[in-house]
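Sample intake sheet
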Amino acid sequence: MDEQLKKDREAARTAAGEQFARLLHHTDIEVLVLLLANPVLDEPQLCALLERKTLPVEVLEELGRRKALTKSYRVKRALAFHVRTPRLVSLRLLRELYLMDLVQLTLMPAISAELKRGAEDQLLARLPQLPLGQKITLARRGPARLAGSLVAEGHPQLLSVALDNPHLTEAQILKALAREKSPAVVPLSIARHRKWSASYNVRLALVRHPLAPLASVLSYLPELTVSDLRELAAPGILPAALRKYLEAEVARRISRGEKLAASGIPRPPAPPE
C-alpha cells in the first residue's frame, strides 16, 4: 500500500482543518467511509461531498445507513438527487422529500424509471390532502401521470391548467377519458382543447365517450377511417342514436367512392389509419 494512502486512512477519523478539507476530495473509498465517522463532518461538508458526481456508490450506500448523518433535509435531498445513490436508499428517501423536490426529481433526465415512478406515486398519494393552490402548481408543472390524474379529477380550476401542462401525454389523456364516471367537464374540455382535440386517437376516444359533446363527435366522423367507423358502429359500443350517424357516414363514403370510380376521377387520400 502507498505510504501516503496509509497515512490518509489513519488520519481520516480524526482529521480537521486543511487536512480534513483535503481528504474530503480523496478518491479512496475507505478514506471517504472513515471520514463519515469524523466528528468534524457537518452539514455543509456533507453537502459538498455529495456534490461530487463520481462519488463511489459504496460511500453513498454507507451514508444512507447512517441516520445521524441524514437528519438534515439538505443532506437527504442531496443524497436522493445524486445520480449514483443506490436505488433502495433513494426509494426510502422519497417519503421524506418536499412536494416540489419530488416534482423536480421526476423531471430529471438521468433518473431511473423505477425512481421516477416512486416519486410520482408519492405525489399522487399526497394529492387528496393538498390545498387548491398547490394542486394548481402541480397541474402546471407536474409530470405526465400527475397532470393526467388532475385532468381526470375534473376540477374546473385545475383542468384547463393541467391540459396545457407541457409534460402531459396523449396516453394520459386517453386514460382520463377511459375512466368510469368521469365528470362531464372532462370530455367537454378535451374536445375544446386545440392540441388534444386534434389527435386522432383522442377523437376516437371522445366518440366512444358517453358524455362527449355531440357537435364535436359529429365533426370528427368525416376524419375517421371507414374501418374505425364500422368498428364503432357495431352493436353494443355506442348508443343507437349515435350509431345511425356512423352508419350514415360509412354509407356516404361508399357511395362517394362508387361515384368517383364510375366517373374515373381518382379518389382523394383516405384519412390515416
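Comment: The two ends are 69 Å apart (CA to CA). The mean pLDDT is 90.
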